[in-house]
Specification:
Blueprint: H1 3-20, E1 42-43, H2 80-87, E2 90-94, E3 97-98, E4 102-104, E5 111-112, H3 114-127, E6 133-137, H4 143-148, E7 154-155, H5 163-166, E8 169-171, E9 176-185, E10 200-204, H6 208-214, E11 221-225, H7 228-236, E12 242-246, H8 247-256, E13 260-272, E14 275-277, H9 281-297, H10 299-307, H11 309-312
Parallel strand pairs: 2-6, 2-7, 10-11, 10-12
Antiparallel strand pairs: 1-11, 3-4, 4-5, 8-14, 9-12, 9-13
The structure holds glutamic acid.
Glutamic acid (GLU) binds at residues 140, 158-160, 204, 207-209, 245-246, 270.
C-alpha cells in the first residue's frame, strides 16, 4: 500500500466514524443541477450591429386615410380589402407570449390581449364581424418573413416602426407608444441599462430591443432567445442579469413574477405600427382609417382600459397620427 492509498483508507475510516455520531455537526451541502437553457438561447459573442440611424425622414408618418371608411358591403372592388374578404378570414400575425398584448389566456385557452382586439377591429371593418380573424403565432424574428411570404395579411405584434423595416414592409400610423426599459430581480442593485456593463441582458432574436442592448454605451452582453417568456425563465434561473425590451412587454413579465421589477428610464422610443406587405397602399390607408376611428370614438381607450390600465396606469391619449401623403 503506497502513501496515497493509506491516506484514502484513513479518510474512509474517519467518515465511517463521523457517520455513526450525531449528524448535526455537518451542514448540508448544496448541489445545483445544471439547468438547461431555453431552446435557441444564445449569448451573442458577435453582437448585432447597433441600430442604424434613421435615413427615411420620419418613419412613423404613414398614408392618410381616403375619405370615409367604406362599409363592409361596399369595399372597393379589386381592393386588397375585397380580396381579404373573398378569402373569408383576415390572417393576422400575433404573439402568444406577451401578457396582455398577445398571450394565451390560461383560463380560456385562447390568444387574447390589446393587439388581438386591434386585429378584431380591422376584421370588423372588413367583414362586419370581429370573429373573422385567423391568428398566426409568430416570434419576433418571424414577423417580416411571414409578411414577405404572404403567410399573413397583417402583423399586429408589438412591432416598432423604423426605417430599416420600412425597406421590407409598410406600416400603419402609430397605434401605441412604447419605450425600452429594463427588468431585473428586486434588490439586484441594477438601476437601468447604464448599470449593466458586462452583464448578460436578454431580448428576442429579430427585435429592436436586442440591437438597442448591443448599442448601449455601457456595453451589456446581449443574450438572444425566441420568446419573451424565455427571457423571464432565464432571469429566474440566474442565466441572465436582466431583460430589456418595451415597457409594455416588461410590465407583463413583472406581473407574472412579483420578484422582478422594471428599473431605469426608457432609453429608446418604440412606436408600434401594424405591418402590411409593401405596396398595398389601399390596405394601409384603410387600416389607418380604422385606427383613426378608434382614436376618436373611445374604442382605443376602451381597449387600453380592458388590457393595460392595471399594469401600465391610466390611459394616455391615443398616439396622434402623422401622415406623409
Ligand atoms: N417593439 C420591439 C420590436 O418591434 C420589441 C417587441 C418584440 O419584438 O416583440 O422589435
Amino acid at each position: 500500500m503506497n502513501r496515497r492509498s493509506i491516506t484514502a483508507v484513513l479518510a474512509g475510516a474517519l467518515l465511517l466514524v463521523a457517520g455513526c455520531g450525531t449528524s448535526a455537526a455537518v451542514p448540508p451541502t448544496e448541489v445545483s443541477a445544471k439547468v438547461p437553457l431555453p431552446a435557441g438561447a444564445t449569448e451573442l459573442t458577435e453582437p448585432p450591429a447597433a441600430p442604424p440611424a434613421a435615413d427615411c425622414g420620419d418613419p412613423t408618418a404613414s398614408l392618410r386615410p381616403q375619405g370615409a371608411l367604406p362599409a363592409p358591403n361596399a369595399l372597393p372592388p379589386g381592393s386588397t380589402m375585397a380580396k381579404i374578404k373573398a378569402k373569408g378570414k383576415l390572417v393576422v400575425g400575433v404573439d402568444q407570449n406577451t401578457f396582455r398584448f398577445g398571450y394565451r389566456d390560461p383560463f380560456t385557452g385562447s390568444v387574447s390581449g390589446f393587439d388581438i382586439d386591434m386585429a378584431k377591429a380591422i376584421a370588423q371593418a372588413i367583414f362586419g364581424t370581429p370573429s373573422a380573424v385567423q391568428l398566426r403565432i409568430l416570434t419576433s424574428s418571424q414577423r417580416i418573413p411571414a409578411l414577405k411570404a404572404g403567410d399573413v395579411d397583417i402583423v399586429i405584434r408589438t412591432m416598432s416602426i423604423n426605417c430599416e423595416r420600412l425597406k421590407d414592409v409598410a406600416f400603419s400610423s402609430v397605434y401605441y407608444e412604447a419605450g425600452q426599459r429594463v427588468l431585473v430581480k428586486k434588490a439586484s442593485g441594477f438601476t437601468g441599462i447604464g448599470s449593466l456593463g458586462g452583464k448578460r441582458v436578454c431580448a428576442t432574436d429579430g427585435s429592436t430591443s436586442l440591437r438597442n442592448i448591443a448599442g448601449a454605451p455601457s456595453k451589456p452582453v446581449p443574450v438572444q432567445v425566441n420568446d419573451w417568456t424565455d427571457c423571464l425563465v432565464m432571469l429566474q434561473q440566474n442565466q441572465v442579469d436582466a431583460v430589456s425590451t418595451d415597457d409594455t412587454i416588461l410590465a407583463g413579465l413583472a406581473a407574472q413574477d412579483p420578484f422582478t421589477e422594471m428599473v431605469g428610464k426608457p432609453f429608446y422610443s418604440e412606436p408600434y405600427g401594424m405591418a402590411m406587405p409593401k405596396g398595398q397602399t389601399d390596405f394601409v390607408r384603410f387600416v389607418n382609417a380604422v385606427i383613426e376611428r378608434m382614436r376618436t370614438d373611445g374604442s382605443w381607450k376602451a381597449n387600453y382600459n380592458r388590457w393595460l390600465a392595471d399594469l401600465l396606469g391610466p390611459a394616455p391619449a391615443p398616439p396622434a397620427a402623422k401622415y406623409r401623403d
